[in-house]
Specification:
14% strand, 104 residues, alpha/beta, three-stranded parallel beta sheet, 3 helices
Length: 104
């Protein structure tokens, strides 16, 4: 889990989550990630993950939220019917930019 991995590691440069499961803000320990954190989720997610991701972005100073105009999380996986090439390209562009900013 990125939240656990990033905690207490001075060399950690950032955390990017594109998973369907989002850890609610109250369950994150103080200072869980001093490095920048990106959350990515479907804007119309029916599982409630978008609400959790919004709360984390609102309450964690280093967190930023990216919403994708989808109802389901699996839009980046070509093996699922929810696959959306345009949303996947945008997700990849954002992840690569995030990584590039932290390289070095």
């Amino acid at each position: 889990m990125p939240e656990r991995a990033s905690r207490g590691r001075p060399s950690w440069r950032g955390e990017s989550s594109a998973a369907a499961i989002q850890v609610p803000a109250p369950h994150l320990s103080a200072g869980w990630c001093a490095a920048p954190a990106h959350r990515r989720t479907a804007a119309n997610d029916r599982l409630g993950n978008v609400d959790v991701a919004r709360e984390v972005a609102r309450t964690v100073d280093t967190a930023e939220l990216f919403l994708y105009p989808r109802e389901r999380q699996l839009f980046a996986d070509r093996s699922f019917g929810e696959h959306d090439p345009a949303a996947t390209a945008l997700l990849m562009q954002r992840v690569l930019a995030f990584l590039q900013q932290r390289a070095g």
